Amino acid sequence: MSEPLTTTLSSKSTTVTIRRDQPTVIIGERINPTGRKQLQSALERKDFDIVRRDAVDQVAAGAAVLDVNAGIPDGDEPVLLEAAVRNVMAVTDVPLCIDTADPEALSAALSVYEGKALVNSVNGEERSLEEMLPRVKEFGAAVIGLCMDDAGIPPTAEERFAVAEKIIERAGRLGIPAEDVVIDPLVLTLGADHNAAKVTLDTIEKVVREFGVNITMGASNVSFGLPDRPYINTAFIAMAIHAGLTCPITNPLAAELGIAILAADLVMGKDEWTMRWIDAFREREQSA
Amino acid sequence: MSQILEQIATGIIGGDIQGVEKLVQKALDEGQEAETILQNGLIVGMAEVGKRFKAAQMFIPEVLRAAKSMHGGQELLRPLLAGDKAGRAGKIVIGTVQGDLHDIGKNLVGMLCEGAGFEVVDLGFDAPPDKFTEAIKTHQPDIVAMSALLTTTMRAMGYTLKAIEEAGLRDKVKVMVGGAPVDAEFAERIGADGYGHNAVSGAEVARNLIEAG
Predict the structure, then answer these.
(1) Which helix (H) or strand (E) holds A133?
(2) Global pTM?
(3) ipTM
(4) Which residue of A31, A32, A74, A194 to mutate against B (max B Cβ within 10 Å)?
């Protein structure tokens, strides 16, 4: 096992550290117009009320970092993303994860961001590495590397590992240290392939063993198309945390995932005196 | 309906991959017409799968398994169907647009369209506009179906449609679109002919487009 690396993110006044022997860090996923018609049309009108409300709600529900995505069809992404970042910074004080595939939008957002952001994301494609990594370096950010490349999402853990290795290596060449690269092994749905989740878990294990880097992933795609999704999502996230997942991108308002993450942290010895578990129980009791 | 055709339909609904193939062979041995086996066995079974999926009584893995069962049977029948009649309902070229890697929805629509009697040419995912235009020239489909799952890749539907226009192929095909972020208004805005709200309605829209001529 490689030494666990520490990824440090910051806002103007808050610092968040992500590390395998510390509690799991939740990156709130809600500020993303994909599949959210209301948010999409609000962004079209340059109305950021929903963005601000989502930011506040997610932080209250336990998100330590917020993902911000403002990609809409025909939208001016650099303008929208920059404005979304400003709006979120105005109402919360958590570090942000800037979510875009558009290099111009990335620069626009990072240039107004105060602190050390996480960039979501680069992948193994040459174009992505060449256009995005220098900007990550320029603004001193950390970056998520997706285990996919020109050929799509590789079907095996070995191939996904190779993409992770390539991204870490290319980042290193530009002076971005491995601790600032967070790997996303990618999660396909079990609904289309019953080995999909196992490939993700195996990828996490291999990457963590070799590089010690932090790991992120989406937590609900795995169950798409299947009944009783929460049971699947909670089992999967707990197993992924055991494998090395340290900062999932999830909806903190989905109670079952939050509880599963707390329980997994508890089981993994990341909850001193079990206080986080007990505190969370009391909060649930009070709000019930 | 004869008993064996009913068994074939039941086999498809149950996703009995080997069983369906054996039953289709048996039906042929008994002297049933390939055409009859296709229409009254395979397609009847797959239509029921579509119905149950729509009613949330069946789930995606079961649909995939049913489709695989159907495929095995179809392969046996294909050489026996006169003049490539596998696609008498029409021909569809389907793909997920450029920049988008999501293909579950697209695959389901493709399978359910096959189940409805269409011949389906699948361009896979991340398909650039020229892949669509080339496929239209090569396969001369009745319908082009595009899928996108991201708000940021929806725009690729627009420029793929433009590429089809610019290649002078727009009047040769009907165009339908679908995917989570897509709605009827968007479909109309980019000039598509049809919009499928989900995988099952995708097959219905395709049928309606053909009927409307």
Answers:
(1) helix A126-138
(2) 0.88
(3) 0.81
(4) A74
